[in-house]
Amino acid sequence: MTTSPRTGLITGASAGIGAAFAHHLAANGYQLLLVARRGDRLRELAARLTERHDVRCEVFAADLTDPAAPTAILDHADQQGLPIDILINNAGLSGKTAFADTPWKDLAREIQLMVTAQTELAHLVVPGMKERRWGRIINLSSIAAFAPPAASLLYTGIKSYVLNTSQALDMELKPHGIHVTALCPGFTYTEFHDVMGTRDKADHLPRILWQQADAVVTEGWAAVMKGRPVCVPGTVNKISAAAMKPLPIRLGYLLGKTLNPFKNS
């Protein structure tokens, strides 16, 4: 009996780390459902991946700042007969103005995109993964999750939420064959700084701090396949994270797992 290849859902797939994940998974024979706001770019990417790797690649244009988007995405996947085995929660943004000067609707969009939608997508795909006894979830956090809070920005707190939640989910789901990894890159060559209007400042940073998106993806994918709940890609980033975080990552994970009051419930 021939079994269908596993399917990966990637958000923010039209560029940067999301597109790099699409190339990486397609090259390894996975089917894809690519999600981003820019449908034209998704279709161009899907066509290239299908031609190059002979894999099925569907697209769904959606804005994850819309609370209805996660359910619409999974409904589309179900209609297309695509059970989601891999979830790459990559879509993100960062505020550009002080908290008090930012309209609430803009702050709410940031929270919806990187907290609520990301968490809801994981909640929607986990039942199927548990039924199939296999799943891989990568949530894009950041090296900022290890840093002290930055004035005015929600970004550091949001990425800390992603880091901690990913570890909590990994503890719960690993016995069911599901690995969850928080991928915590540092400065990466993508469109992120262009969109956020911080390109001039970013260009003045030393080159040693930067990584290519492909390198981030390769290390992140290896980590989730090995069952590592946290991945800080790149030597410089690892040193920086270790210097900023007083409790070693592995020790913190072990303590959280051991002291969990729900572990025997």
Automatic annotation (TrEMBL):
The keyword tRNA processing does not apply. InterPro entries: KR_dom, NAD(P)-bd_dom_sf, SDR_fam. Keywords: Oxidoreductase. Its EC number is 1.-.-.-. Belongs to the short-chain dehydrogenases/reductases (SDR) family. GO terms for molecular function: oxidoreductase activity. The lineage of its organism: Bacteria, Bacillati, Actinomycetota, Actinomycetes, Mycobacteriales. It is an enzyme of class 1 (oxidoreductase). This is SDR family NAD(P)-dependent oxidoreductase. SUPFAM superfamilies: NAD(P)-binding Rossmann-fold domains. Residues 6-164 form the Ketoreductase domain.
